[in-house]
């Protein structure tokens, strides 16, 4: 019987060595690996050089706060420590999803990760209250490689809300990899709100594997960091599985955002819905590359992808590349839509004629623009939190 | 409609011809000597010779594209291609020698008698010559210049030199460089100010030259306020033993001018059809590409419009049919908005069946300063079975806030409800499917001149029956 | 804002252009018959680098993008050949002794 995680202070030597060995291998591979090809859409709009290891940063660990109201029902622990109790599972699955889309940037994480969370929900457990994980970066000139692992056993259910932010620090880089497995019939409602200060570079890779009848809902809110890149890849491997991704991006000054949302339907009767709204001001820029694949076997799939961009300033820039690759005609629905536009002048004048100043009018319009996506967040508490963060960002615009 | 027979190689139907019929045939592969020879035989001015040599240099240095149908592209054997073949006076065959299958296809497609013989290489001087001559006289009266590109280079050197390669430079891409080195044939059209050419000008009006050549170079200039419609291609299956076709088409619509360029391509399934087509639209100008891709093994073609003058408007109507696992239609549109108050509409329709792959690849780019731009892109893909593939790769790069950009794409199959409804009205399943496909293609077909529309409809019918190989 | 690039004028020979990163911006400094000009090192056609190193000027005062043949006038940043249609940023260069100064917003 595995030790209770609370009793584990250090890993056994064997495991520690095993992990170190893996890291050394990854380090060597990282050195050899060239930068990703900039002609691919994944790296066309961001410079991979911004996301590598640099000599001016030293290794650090974010300050973590975990709020787990259901301690008896599920495990939330530090990932390194979790290896001790879940050695078999982790040795089997850890790194497997990320190795499928390996690159210099993922190897960087594999070589240096030194903290992260491990969430494990046992079979049949349905956790009512959401788990909250807050990460805060607090050192300048630092590199924060983080590795997270989430595993839901059959028919379990949990809500996980992550909030990532930083103190007012300089020139730090956060590289996060999160691997998520959902077994048959399980359900995960997941959210990440990223609100770093402007001098942070943020890279978050999420890889998700869905088994039969499992459900994954992902809310991504990106409002901080000077340069950020989110690389989300979900594989609907089991019949009847479904995935949804709701994204809100709000940028100003010289922020640059790059979101890559890849959804692969690999089994029949699978469902996906991607809905991303982006509002940009000043010289902010956003690139959205969506890749929706429906494999030959994935008959009766239902897939929808939407990206809507609102440009609030002449120098704001939006790029949208929603791709479709469909290998079966037997789909229930498969479509995507993109719009890029500015605020309707008539709407502003109307609101101003009701006594609002231009800034307040613009704020209301942006809120209205983002609302259809926000309304899809079912978790009330999370929804309120998202609205709050957006509100405070809009005040700054 | 014209077709070039490359006599020294086997026909799909087993036609064999003797090699000595040709006046000149370059050796296989591409060398500096071959390029120099091409220029010498055409008696070209020095600047064109130098242009070709520079292009050869660029072509040899440039790598193959890393995107698109890279596996199929890898099949092109550049060293094994004849880059220049000048056809002799066309030796007439007798109509009796033409294989029955070809005659049947012409029958089914309702190709007019005169054209059948020309398409089959039976008659060198075809009866339409009389029509051609009277059209030429009318055009001359208007001051319209319509020549093949080789003749234009000789007879209109100033205009040609002024505009040639200004829209597509040699370095643009590997296949534009190739075309720039070995181009032969193609059309040159100049329409003077305020002249509106009422009849569509067709490629096959140019007799005495190669048509459907491998490396055609076309240049159309519509001067201020003028308008012209040019049509090239053929819905009838066009047999070519040349495996690589790499054309370059440059359109220049000056202030207030309008150019519509219609292409229907139905190359045989051994052909790699890699085309660079680009237009520049000045203030208040309009450019329309109507692009139909039915044949070839691989077509990579993205008609582009650069809207560089205020209030210019661009439209691309693209239709692609990929019918067979040996076929990939990789088509689309590129619109660059570089001036305020410009608008664009892109409509792409594709059908894939029997393992065919149809891809839409597009770009809508709005430069900073191009305010009040409106662009709508709509892609509809119809997949007729589960062996086929449909892709959509749209890119939107928007650098200016005063815009309204919309893009929508749908991939679907023939809806069961629609099918059952039609069948309940007494149509067979086959007839119902055909009707639905015709309805799907209708927006494209209605843009074609009637004889093309009629032929296209018949071709679709043939395709749906699986009768056309 | 006038920035001392710390680049010496002899580093760029007449008829040549060299790329640098100045104040976080990718900039190309060009020597046209002894006169110095500067433009952004980003092609307006595909947003990739124009020079990235050193290259010769074309037609005495133009830069040619190596990928698709776009050309820009180094004095004004104007696009001179397709497939570029939008200009690139141009910066004023001041020579003071051996040093090059550049005006950046």
Principal-axis shape of chain C equals globular
The end-to-end span of chain B amounts to: 21 Å
How big is the Rg of chain B? 22 Å
User: What structural class do you assign from the helix and strand content of chain B?
Assistant: alpha/beta
- What's the tally of helices of chain C? 0
The averaged pLDDT of chain B comes out at 82
Average pLDDT metric of chain C: 92
Instruction: State the assembly state of the protein chains.
Output: heterotrimer
Q: Given the helix and strand composition of chain C, which structural class is it?
A: mainly beta
Number of helices, counting only DSSP H or I runs of 4 residues or more of chain B: 12
Largest sheet of chain C: 5 strands, antiparallel
Strands across the major sheet of chain C, in which order?
5-2-3-4-9
Residue windows where pLDDT falls under 50 for at least 5 positions of chain C: none
How much helix is in the residues of chain C?
under 10%
Question: What is the number of beta strands of chain B?
Answer: 21
Order of helices and strands of chain C: EEEEEEEEEEE
Strand fraction of chain C equals: over 45%
Low-confidence stretches of chain B: 1-22, 88-93, 121-130
Quote the distance from N terminus to C terminus of chain C.
6 Å
